[in-house]
Specification:
Layout lengths: L1 H13 L25 E12 L17 E28 L7 E24 L1 H7 L1 E11 L2 E7 L5 H6 L3 E2 L2 E2 L16 E2 L6
Parallel strand pairs: 3-6
Antiparallel strand pairs: 1-2, 2-3, 2-4, 3-7, 3-8, 4-5
Length: 200
């Protein structure tokens, strides 16, 4: 993703933001706050285009019978404690628009999982086809984990992803959880329990 970072810096310069990229040091994931050992052993983030699953219903006629493409962010992470009360997962996706007035758009989404048992966990999120049609291609994605405000671990398809966050105002709530997509029932048991609304 080095090319993406280089193009990103060039485009930002066109809109008078290149000065923010003058530092030669690569952006880093947020440092973990004090509070003992990090309870996350590892994290791996990937992003890919996927087609909506095919669902058939005899009593329903779709106005859009063709399957459309979504952008999927997939995150695998491993927890070390026997139990963790909660983990908040924050997703980011950088999009190249092709519009010189706003060459890049940053999307953001977030969810909190509760009662996590020791082991490997999966978190997924999606960029809606409408956003892909409007803003263009997803250039990269990132995921940050924290627990009760404490930064834990992060991973990205671009090691310089922190520059996106530092220089662009994200469109919050624009990255969707599986329950809000056609993928809601796929591999349902692989995902953790979301924090109830009344507990947030």
């Amino acid at each position: 993703m080095t090319i993406v970072s280089r193009n990103f810096a060039k485009a930002l310069g066109a809109v008078a933001m290149a000065v923010l990229l003058s530092s030669p040091a690569p952006a880093q994931a947020p440092a973990a706050a004090a509070g003992g050992p990090i309870p996350i052993d590892r994290i791996k983030v990937t992003g890919s285009m996927v087609r909506s699953p095919e669902v058939q219903a005899k009593s329903y006629t779709s106005i859009n019978p063709k399957k459309v493409e979504w952008y999927q962010i997939d995150c695998l992470y491993e927890t070390k404690p026997e139990w963790m009360d909660e983990i908040t997962v924050t997703y980011f996706a950088l999009m190249r628009t092709g519009d010189q007035r706003e060459p890049f758009v940053l999307l953001k989404g977030e969810t909190t999982f509760v009662h996590l048992m020791k082991g490997v966990h999966r978190a997924q999120a999606y960029v809606h086809p409408a956003l892909l049609r409007r803003f263009g291609k997803v250039e990269g994605c990132a995921v940050e984990l924290r627990s009760q405000g404490r930064p834990l671990k992060a991973d990205s398809t671009d090691p310089q992803y922190r520059k996106w966050i530092e220089q662009l105002s994200p469109k919050d709530g624009h990255i969707l959880q599986p329950k809000d997509t056609p993928f809601a029932h796929l591999d349902y048991d692989a995902f953790e329990m979301e924090k109830p609304r009344q507990a947030q």
